Amino acid sequence: MAKRRQAVRVVLGTALVALLAGCVGVPDAQEMRALRAEAAERRLDDLAQKATTDSGVYLSGPLLLWEAVALALGNNRSLQQEEWGREVARGRVEASYSEALPALGLTGSYLRLDEERTAAGPDGTRYPTRFQDQYGAGLRLTQPLFNGRIGAALRAAKLYDAWTEASIRAATEATQRKTIRAYYQAVLSEHLLEVNQAALETAERQLENAQARRRQGMASNYDELRAQVEVANFRAQVLQARNDKDVAYTALYRLMGASPESAAELVDDIPLVPETIEFADAARTALERRADLALAEYALRMQRESVAVAKSRYVPEVSGYVSQNWANPDPHDAARDDWGDEWQAGVQVTLPIFDGFDRRGTLIQERAKLRQLEIALQDAEDRAVSEIRQAVLSLKTAEEFAHSQSRNLATAAEALRLVEAGLKEGQNTPVEVMDARQALTRASANYYQSIFSHALARVALQQAMGQLAPDVLPDAPVLGGDAPSAGSVGSAGSVE
Predict the structure, then answer these.
(1) What are residue 412's phi and psi, to 5 degrees?
(2) Which of 59, 71, 123, 382 is the most exposed place for a label (fewest CB within 10 A)?
């Protein structure tokens, strides 16, 4: 009874230690708040420094578009997470070798029995038949000889590796497109801020002129009040444009993995690259090169291997094994209180006869998944063709709109010039000048927006065709054909 109570105490003590070990190191809500408070202080200290820290790369001075893309591809957190998929794929490839390579295992055991058993011999002497303390150790080598999973597992692992690379390429293209868009958005915000600041300065001069004319009796109270309202409106637009610029730069820094306190100066302007591209050429390129189509194709091929694995459960599994065991008592003589050893070798064949329809149900599922992926590949191809058609039409429309807005900007600038000249000669009123100035401001904003939309349409087409790569920027023809040289947004009303 005492030995039994002691054994119970040992078991309960072991269970208690295991329970406590599982609870140690898990912070409660208060401890978690303290940990996050420390992390917050470290992050704020990083942000306060104008240097590269854990919070990101600190940028200052000129920043070209290709430099922004390179920084994003090197520092973007989301892309870094995606690139770790290579390690997952490498591990999966190595794990797949287990289906073909031998497995070597080491075992050890200790068994404490409640009492020792003995038996009486012919001469009345008692000898042990079971010892209280029993020890064992062994090595077992198993080599698969035949099963239907070996080839399928190796092929699936290599397909997964290729699928991972295609997935990283898709993530890289998405990051590059986002970075280009954010860069151009920041450039656009600068142009819009300049347009509104120029309009505000002109409105302020007009207000001063209206106040002077009113003191001389040459303008009415309405003229002065209208000028004041216009100044207030443009000040509000300047504030909004300045906020939009801050938001655009913050988004760009975030994509590049840069510190939000950076002070970069964007060098590249938004390009206007006229280009004629045929739908058939674009669709053919897309169906050959798009990353999402490669992903769908690899997924389909991996599922075919899954079907092969499911079918392999209907064939026998053959493996050979060799084992070497050491035990006390001697495995050849249980009455001998000493270490002994034995070895075994053999071939094992396994073939399930009935498993409750598990194999059949699994095979049905895998075949259904295969059909789903076949349909998914067809759908991805249809979607790619649809996106190409839309992208080609959108690019054509954006180019026409950009040219129309360029002409409209020139017209609005000329209209303002004529009205201002007419005001000096007494042929036009200050209100007409204000209306013309507002029209020019809207035309300038629409022009820059049209150039921005055209650039984004080109980037969208490049990505839809699978041609967006780190060394390909949207200031060259999409298909590398004989297109006119790239232009960029220059001064208001001109395309250089």
Answers:
(1) -65, -35
(2) 123
